[in-house]
Amino acid sequence: MAYLLIVDDENTTSDLLIAVLQKDGHTLHTAKNGAEALATLGERTPDLILMDVSMPEMDGYTMVSHLSADTATRDIPVIVMTGKNALEDTFRQFTNVADFFAKPFDVKVLRQRVLQILAQHGRR
After folding, report:
1. Which residues, 6+ apart, have CB-to-CB distance to 90 below 8 Å?
2. What are the pLDDT digits (tens) for 66-121?
3. Could you report the per-residue pLDDT of 21-44, keeping only the tens digit for each?
4. How many domains does the chain have?
5. Strand order in the sheet with 78-82
6. Is the dihedral of CA 43, 46, 28, 2 positive or negative?
7. Which secondary-structure segment (H or E) carries 106?
8. What is the distance, to the nearest Å, from the Cα of residue 77 to the centroid of all Cα atoms in its chain?
9. Among residues 101, 74, 78, 105, which one has the least CA distance to residue 88?
10. Which domain holds residue 8?
11. Strand locations in the chain, DSSP E?
12. For residue 56, what is the DSSP state?
């Protein structure tokens, strides 16, 4: 299956996503903030990134900006997860943002969207 990168400083969210997405056979890696996530991209390019917005050191908006500016990472689809519903329009300007989930989210719906996005991008 796919290699997914979860970027969230909240262990509760990361642990939940790992528990749910491992059931589909995905390989998962976690990072606590955007800077840590970007540093891991040299090791292995994820098929999909699931990312929080509010994080220390480098927030989600800055991370998506970095991903979009780099030809090596601009095509990696991103699911943005946040408790701030008003930010959806801000992230829609980035072509690599595939979906937006307000926290708390329905894990079944998120799981379905992960599979759909991976299929759309030829990454299963």
Report:
1. 61
2. 999 999 999 999 999 887 665 555 566 566 888 888 888 899 999 999 999 999 98
3. 999 999 999 999 999 999 999 889
4. 1
5. 27-31, 3-7, 48-52, 78-82, 97-102
6. negative
7. none
8. 8
9. 101
10. 3-120
11. 3-7, 27-31, 48-52, 78-82, 97-102
12. S
Picking from 31, 1, 27, the residue whose alpha carbon sits closest to that of residue 14 is 31
CATH code for the domain in which residue 83 is found = 3.40.50.2300
Q: Which of 111, 54, 50, 59 is nearest to 77 (CA)?
A: 50
Q: How confident is the model at residue 124 (pLDDT cuts 50, 70, 90)?
A: low
> What's residue 45's pLDDT?
93
Dist CA 122 CA 124 (whole Å): 6
